[in-house]
Give the backbone structure.
Amino acid sequence: MQEERGSGRRGLLRVACMAFVGALAAATLAQERPAEEDRFDAAAFHNALRVRGLTELLELHLKEFPPRNEESLILLQRQVQLSRYADETLSEAQRMAALAEANRLLEQLIRMRDTDPRRHEWRCVLAGSLLNEEAAPAIARIVLLGGNADDRRVLADRAGRAVALLEKVLADVESEYARLDAMNLRDYERVEESGYIDRLETAEQQARYVIIWAHFYDALHRPPRDPVRHERLESVLDRLEEDAWLLEKPHDQTHLQAQTLLLAGMTERLLGLDGDADRHLEAAVSAVEKVADADERRSLAWVKLRAVVERSRALQHAGRQVAAAEVLRDFEHEAAAAGAETFGLRLVVAMAQRALHKAAAAAARSSNDAARAAAEEAAATAELVQLAEGHAGHKDEIYGTLYDLIGAGADVAALDDIEKAALMAGLLRDARRMEESGGAWPPPEGPPHPGGATPEALRRRVLDVGASIGAGAAHASLEPEIAFNLAVARQHLGDSVEAARRFLRVGHDYPRFSEALRASLLAVQLTYQLRADPGADREAINALYRDALGALVSRHGAAPEARYWRFFYALALEDAGRFADAAAQYLLVEPLHEHALEAMCFRARSLSAGLLEATAQGGMDAVTIRRGATEIFDLLRDFNARAAELKATAAPDRVQEIDDLLAEATLVQARAQLLPTIGNPQRALDALADFEKTWPHATRPMGAVLATRLTALQRLGRLDEAAALLPGYVAADPTGAGATLQALYAPLAAALEDESVTGKTEGAQQRAELARRLAEHLCTWADRPESRVDAAGRRALKLQLAEALLLSGDPAQARRLFEECGAREALSGQAGEGGDARAIMGLAESYFQTAEHETALPMFNKVATTLSPQYPLRWKALLRDLQCRDALGHDPADIVKVIRNQQVNRYYADPAAGGRYTAAFDNLLKAAQRRAP
């Protein structure tokens, strides 16, 4: 009788026994009803809340009205946690935390009810959840992608706990069988009628099946040379041999064959049994494909995917590289044709193909075939690069997968280009998370980040990784990604200048890179901020700012961001004196841009400034000047009309802005009247006559207004009025006054200099007085901090003032200044073209003007014999030398000889050298010839 009962209990596994989940036991748990009496059916109420997803309400009700039965309370609390785990609106971390809590509650229940008839079912359910839910992500990464240390740690814990639970079930079941066998027939039948024996058999069947997987996973996390690993794998094959029907019975009868064939194949591959592994894995794929029910076939997709990946590994290990690659390609094409292709599937296949290339590269290196090894390594990188390029938005997932696999502390020397790129991206991501969490974010479990888990340390490691890549070493499509991340690291480490340069290169050199526009914008924004830094190299930063803006508008001109910043690019070009380029960019500012009106005004300003600059340099014909002036006047007319239209409906603050622009336009109009061939300085004065009254709040153009008035008055010969304006002008434009005053002084002084040699003309003294006033104001201006004139510049301006004093007829005061500038000290040295020669020459000229020719002569001689003949100062010194000799009664024949000898010099008549003094030399020659014997 006992033998009969035993054989019945140990018969074939029931069809209802499904892999992994222990559905029957789970259902039993879900259907437990608390033994309590109340005014309503509490269990039905709780179940209704759970079914409708009202888990928060259920949790609140359990807190306020807990069941009297503690077991019922734990089961209901577990259901709350399982409902959260099933809620896909929660984050992955929240769902996994809920699952862990549900399993903890079940463990608590098992400890509390160690003799409960349902304890076996509970243990099977818990073991299945540990393996197939808690450890599922780690298992998938290990089996499909190779996994990392964290994955193996998780799997070691969950698999170890599952094995212990299942071994306990099998031991307890065996004890129960022994207890049942000892019963008399009546007691046995009564137990059997209660359904306990059926539940016991189900628990045994579940435990026998799931423990095979548990042993496999307990082996999977261990190092290849761990003896326990081999022992566990052998036990898997032993158990499969004992229950051979799992492999042999058709899947449509057991619904377990496909999974078991996969398990056998994976186990055999890890044991190096490549032939058996290939056979079982191919059979697993075939078993899935034969499943008639579409829903079940979809639920077994993971079996087919793992079988394909494992088979490729088995074939590769057996030396069948081509066949391994074909298995993956065929699977990929089949999935694509069936419409089942997903990014996740493609990523797994790409990683498997990458692994094949990596293995082939290692084999090539071992046989000293460097070329083949390099080709296989390139192909390994190309697999993932191609996937990233073909699936927009998935690069982060690829990088994240690689980062998780290699780990933050990976040996950079052992990584390929895409792994380095992924490492850089992962380190930056972790650094950002730390900062966003205020430094409280912990690094991933396992080995800590190298250099300490701080954002700065992680970003410095990014720079180290980037340095290891080397120029041109990265795969072409990875270069912009790597360059961008290096720039990000520089930015967050505080090296804004270098970060801006790197962002600029990314945006300019890789316009098709997904982050190219963002890189260009970051370059613009960083340099814009740097311009406000008082300690920055302003000239270099402004140049970098212009380059960043130029890259943005030239490479990404259609983007809204580029259309916005184009106005500021034009402004930067104008500030740099590139007036033609600025005018061209202002013209491209869109009519709806918030600064469209400004662009009209500033374009006229740039055109005017460019035309004034070009005419000052000479070489521009009258027709071109008139055409340019007409364009300016037409543009200003259109601007004024548009400004008046907008001003009529503008808000008060905008009205002031428009008035400022109208004031600027008035100034542009006046300055254009000073153009050659236009030449109407009186109109310029008329345009500015009521400027202060019309635009009382205009601030920026006042210095330019006074400068324009100065120029117009000078051209009209109203020099006293011009001189009277100087103090107010310097006060109004303390920064730009120097350039304007110098521009007024230079031509005035040059004309007076010519007249000092050839003879003074009418009004010369009045012009000389203005020149002196200009020179004085330049010296006063240079002493102000805002002028930023250094010591050498201030000395040059003092020399200029001394020269202006000579021109105005004040040699004594001039002599003092020349001596302060080191003229006497320079006499004992080598006089160069710079300040020393000018100082000596000026000192000599001060003596010449007081007829102290004997004192002046050696000074003039020193300059004349030291400077090269291409310098005009040399020719004036020579002229003054001869004039002194003539005044001192030297032999006129010597003077004639010197002049004759100089006439053959090619610089004698050169307008840029001695040409301006030719007439004076000729007059002196004639006078000397008359006196010569």
Q: What stands out?
A: DSSP finds 47 helices and no strands in the chain. Confidence is low (pLDDT under 50) at residues 1-42.
